[in-house]
Amino acid sequence: MARPPKASKREESSGEFRSGFVSLVGRPNVGKSTLTNALVGEKVAITSSKPQTTRHTIRGITNRPTGQLILVDTPGIHRPRTLLGERLNALVQATLGDVDVIGMCFPADEPIGPGDRFINEQLDKYPRAIKIAVITKTDVASKAQTAERLMQVQELRDWATIIPVSAVGNDQVDLLADELIQLLPLGQPLYPDETNTDEGIEKRISELIRETILEGVHEELPHSLAVTIDDMIEREDKDLLEIYANVFVERDSQKGIIIGSGGERLKDIGQRSRAAIEPVVGQKVFLSLRVKVAKDWQRDPKLLQRLGF
Ligand SMILES: Nc1nc2c(ncn2[C@@H]2O[C@H](COP(=O)(O)OP(=O)(O)OP(=O)(O)O)[C@@H](O)[C@H]2O)c(=O)[nH]1
Question: Which domain holds residue 131?
Answer without folding.
Answer: 9-182
